[in-house]
Design brief:
about 250 residues; 4-stranded mixed beta sheet; binds zinc ion
């Protein structure tokens, strides 16, 4: 509830700040927005921690589990040294049976057996990465995006990274926090490895399950490719830049 109230106020604030943006005093508005996000993110973080603590004391929430070897391997391939999979835990969240969500280093699963499909593990781990490298303001920024663009499964929602491109954000680092996580998830799911002969045309294409992240620059016969199922356009360059940006943080 508290997060919802903060979220609504933030929604009004972002509307006001958007208006300020249109008045061409961008640096001031940007600074203000950063400050608001930092305060709101910190508040959500504290309230979230308190709720988790209360639920644990009441025996409603368990400590969760560490990642399994195969899950750690997936994250190692995607994030390399920019995220330590040993810090992540998965816990069953008994109050909400629809969505996965992440608070700090814990990914909450709606499943009693604390399971998580690999592509969602990648998505939620991007939020852990955001927490580690950008602080708790990622919480406010993710929530704001959900309020501003919606979470309904329609084009232009908070998760639609192609909509971020249309809004003029060409850099993965500037995408809203949900769109940023969704792009990495979709590269993991849909990215391809093209095995090349001497001709330009690939002789074989491997796809899915993180193959895009398993190629190295020395792999001259295999080239990464990412054609999005959203609009069948080739976003290989964006995918490579985003992957490198993700991995560049230590
Ligand atoms: Zn997310």
């Amino acid at each position: 509830m508290m997060a919802g109230t903060i979220g609504s106020s933030m929604g009004v604030l972002i509307f006001l700040l958007d208006t300020v943006f249109s008045l061409s005093i961008k640096p001031v508005a940007k600074g203000l927005l950063q400050l608001v996000n930092t305060i709101a993110g910190g508040t959500i973080s504290i309230v979230g921690n308190m709720l988790v603590l209360i639920a644990r004391v009441m025996g409603l929430l368990n400590e969760g589990r560490l990642l399994r070897v195969e899950e750690k391997n997936i994250l190692q391939e995607v994030f390399q040294a920019s995220l330590d999979p040993k810090k992540i835990t998965i816990a069953y969240f008994p109050f909400w049976h629809k969505y996965f969500f992440t608070l700090h280093n814990t990914i909450y699963s709606p499943h009693k057996d604390q399971s998580i499909p690999p592509h969602l593990l990648v998505h939620e781990s991007v939020h852990v990465w955001q927490y580690h490298h950008e602080g708790t303001k990622y919480l406010a920024e993710a929530l704001l995006a959900q309020i501003q663009y919606g979470i309904k499964n329609i084009p232009g929602n908070a998760y639609d990274w192609t909509a971020e491109l249309s809004r003029g954000k060409t850099d993965w680092g500037n995408f809203n926090k949900e769109a940023a996580a969704k792009l990495i998830e979709e590269i993991w799911k849909e990215g391809e490895a093209c095995i090349l002969s001497n001709e330009a045309e690939p002789v074989e294409v491997e796809n899915g399950c993180g193959v895009f992240f398993r190629m190295s620059a020395e792999d001259y016969n295999r080239k990464p490719r990412f054609i999005s199922k959203r609009n069948h356009q080739d976003y290989t360059d964006l995918a490579i830049e985003s992957m490198l940006m993700l991995r560049s943080k230590k």
